[in-house]
Amino acid sequence: MVIVTVCVGSSCYVRGADRVAEELQRLIAEHGLEGKVELSGAFCMERCSLGVTVRVGDRVCPQVMPDEVEAFFLSEILPQLRGQVRGELGVEA
User: Helix or strand or coil: residue 5?
Assistant: First the structure.
């Protein structure tokens, strides 16, 4: 399971955290990843001046813009899932 956390603190919220979370939720459903990707929120990731911050597993990704969520999903979240599948199959990532 890949855990994706969107900062919803006031600074990120005014920069579009709600739209980022909604788009991530849509993409998770569209790709049939319910049960493989867990989406949650956090009130502060201490990167307030950098825009909406999203954590994917242990990787912190600041400056995720609402209009760039699909590209972010494809470049950050899907590769994490592929890496987990390879690991489960005993194949090195």
Answer: strand
With beta carbons less than 8 A apart as the criterion, state whether 38 and 3 touch. yes
Domain that holds residue 45: 2-88
- CA–CA gap between residue 24 and residue 73 (Å, rounded): 7
6-27 residue pLDDT tens: 999 999 999 999 999 999 999 9
Which candidate, 56, 59, 53, places its Cα nearest to that of 15?
A: 53
Structural domain count of the chain:
1
Distance CA 52, CA 49 (A): 9
- pLDDT < 50: residue spans in the chain: 86-93
**Gap between the Cα atoms of 23 and 46, Å rounded:** 23
Assigned domain for 93 exists: no
